[in-house]
Amino acid sequence: MTAGCTACGTVGECTTCGSGYTLTYESECDADAPSITTGSCAVSSQCYSGSCKGGNCCTEMGMSTGCIGCYLNGTCSACSSGHTLTDYECVVAASPPPSPPPPAVTTGDCSDDSECTSGSCKNGYCCTTKGMTTGCTACYYDGTCFACGSGYTKINYDECVVAPPPPPWSPAVTTGSCSDGKECDSGLCLDSICCTEKGMTAGCIKCGWSYGHCDECSSGYTLSADACYDDDAPRPSGSCTAGSECISGSCKGGYCCTERAGVTGCTDCNTYGDCNTCSFDFTREEYSRAWAGAGWGYECVAVPPVALECSGRYGGYSGQYAAGYTFSIDGGSNNDNVKVRQRCTTFNDCMNAV
Fold this sequence. Notes:
5 domains, 33 strands, elongated
């Protein structure tokens, strides 16, 4: 059972030794002494250097750190990663020199102060003298100041100076946001919005940001034409069931009509008090509303009578037509003409006149 023994006899003696061992007369295996300085090898124990790489015994140069293979003469033939073969031995590979930084620029894109000749990069652009004024927080592409920080204001469109102290409160405004009535021309601030005249009507609890008119009324009031009206008082627009509920005295289609839209010819009004539908002899036209800045309204405008020619197979005939208009049919054989001084919408309207 000595080291290197690979087979035993009947009485337990070693009969065969492995590679690198020799069987003695005492039936024991002795390790072979190294016998190769350079040249081919199978195991490192065969080499005086104790190093067998790539099938060859290595000398001192082949045993350098990083060497992974040796030539027949024992010098190094190949190196591992991170090492370089130099004069048949391995040395640590030198790191490549760092790339030089790009030259600094006066204006233009940047990501760090070091990229700018001024040493100042703000908002992705190099700043020049005006962009480096105290309080400047961002620069334009040309290097001038784009934005100023709190407590500073921009002058000449390109540099910052200390802002003058603010007044006790901002100048009054007509519409827009507010925190107190003294900030509004009207003196009334509801729900953080300045109110105008219509927002100051009784019952209004919220004004609109754009025009300052009323957006919401309290209980007992109805919002109509951007103002609040007592539920029991007539109003200019909105839902109704009778004319007495409307300022104009005209309730059509379940809505109060404005005095302009509720004139003769309108048969149906909308929530704004404008006319939705006109009767036969009227046409619906736009007009600019005087309230709310709410764009265009609609009213009915009378259409003057027009002549309309129709054709049919009738003998000569003349007579009276409804609404006091006259008509006549010129005689002919197969293609008679009917001339009716009346607005007609279809051919049958003309024929029914006969």
